Amino acid sequence: MGETTTIDEPAPETEAFAGRLLDAATDTVTVFGVYLGERLGLYDALVEAGRCTSAELAARTGTDERYVREWLEAQTVSGVLGVDDEAAAATERRYSVPEAHVEVLTDRDSLYYLAPLGRLLAGAVAPLPDVVEAYRTGAGVPYAAYGSDLHEGQAAMNRPSFLRLLGEEWLPSIPDIDARLRADPPARIADVGCGHGWSSIGIARSYPNVRVDGYDLDEASVEAARRNAEAYGVADRVGFEVRDASDPTLEGTYDSRGDAAARSYNLVTAFECIHDMADPVGALRTMRRLLTDGGAALVMDERVGDAFTAEGSDVERFLYGASILHCLPVGRADEPSAETGTIMRTDTFRSYAEEAGFGSVEVLPIENYFWRFYRLEP
Ligand SMILES: C[S@@+](CC[C@H](N)C(=O)[O-])C[C@H]1O[C@@H](n2cnc3c(N)ncnc32)[C@H](O)[C@@H]1O
After folding, report:
1. How far apart, in whole angstroms, are the C-alpha atoms of residue 250 and residue 318?
2. What is the residue range of 259's domain?
3. What is the pLDDT at residue 213?
4. Cys-Cys link to 153, which of 47, 75, 120, 299 (CB 3.0-4.6 A)?
5. pLDDT, position 22
6. Residues 62-90: tens digit of each pLDDT
7. Where are the beta strands (DSSP E) in the chain?
8. Gap from CA of 169 to ligand 1 centroid (Å)
9. Strand, coil or helix: 281
10. Is the C-alpha dihedral spanning 14, 17, 23, 26 positive or negative?
11. What is the pLDDT of residues 202-226, one digit of tens each?
């Protein structure tokens, strides 16, 4: 008789957890499949064509048929794409983007456009070896190390909200700010940490009088912002500069004579960037200093819970992922660092704002799944 090996049945909780982790890995590779589809224009071409074989899609997109065939099958088993006849020969099958998925995968202006999630996550893991080393040494990882996928993905994700909601719903819901942006003399706005400039452009499109100065530390983002302002026909009123928001010498670039002038902005904004900054108090201090009498600052940052709870919300689970891979390492790239991370709770933000000299910090009643809005006044 040979020896028999008995394998202990795992506890149900062990099995459930193992299953959960496998599901998470499966979903992760689906998102990287979305990355390929978005980067290579595969979704756009499929939607344009209606239905495609692998060879037709490869020809339309200048890609390799064998890779595209594998991608089509992978995306279909993941429930992203549909197939006409699964039993047909592999090279004969025709695939399509289901009607309900078209907006999410290809409509760049839709609030449901999520294809850039692939780019964002690919960017977030681009410098993983550096991040692993940073965990050992306590050093940071510079924003530029995350490459173009990160800032392009970030910009594409927030773009629809900035173009469709910021100047059309969010700002109009703050009556006195809305009124000032419509009034004369033309209001001046500084937008710190502006990235690719979509928030600045969104405000300028909704308020045809205003002038906006966008400031960001990242050169590639500022170049993209300038191109975007040109493309949207607002470059005469919207300018961008590479500047550190926490630089105590940062001053306004326009005044009525076209000269630099401090304390000259009616509104200073910071969208999803304060938590990324090594010196958030310094940046908030700049924002306060740049305000005219009667001006206000508006900060949009992540809508996280008021306190850590073991069972975080879906938003918080996602944001913790962003924090451990990107936001915390980036925020530690400059020393000294506040070491905030993505999960900047209201109390933390309030303490930064108060330390920066703001006398009033109000959480605005703007409902949004991802964002919380703060109005600050000196
Ligand atoms: C998460 S991105 C947000 C970009 C943009 N506001 C948006 O919502 O899409 C954070 C931005 O903050 C910028 N940033 C970080 N620290 C900064 C600083 N000290 N001064 C200016 N910009 C900074 C980064 O370069 C990056 O563009």
Report:
1. 34
2. 125-377
3. 95
4. 120
5. 98
6. 999 999 999 999 999 999 999 999 999 99
7. 82-83, 95-96, 188-192, 211-216, 238-242, 265-271, 291-302, 360-363, 371-377
8. 23
9. helix
10. negative
11. 999 999 999 999 999 999 999 999 9
The mean of the pLDDT values for the chain is: 95
Please count the residues of the chain.
378
212 falls within a domain:
yes
Query: Which residues, other chains included, contact 137 with Cβ-Cβ below 8 Å and sequence gap of 6+?
Result: none
Residue 6 lies in a domain: no
Contacts of 28 (CB under 8 A, 6+ apart): 121
253 alpha carbon, distance to own chain's centre:
27
**Are 100 and 135 in the same domain?**
no
Q: Is 338 in the pocket of ligand 1 (CB under 6 A)?
A: no
CATH number at residue 41: 1.10.10.10
Measured at the alpha carbon of residue 69, what is the angle toward residues 68 and 74, in degrees to the nearest 5? 95
How far apart are the C-alpha atoms of 369 and 315, rounded to whole Å? 8
CA distance 161 to 108: 11
**Is the distance from the beta carbon of residue 273 to the nearest atom of ligand 1 less than 6 Å?**
yes
Cα 236 to ligand 1 centroid, rounded to whole Å: 23
Q: Find the CATH number of the domain harbouring 284.
A: 3.40.50.150
Q: Is 342 in the pocket of ligand 1 (CB under 6 A)?
A: no
Cβ atoms < 10 Å from Cβ of 121:
22
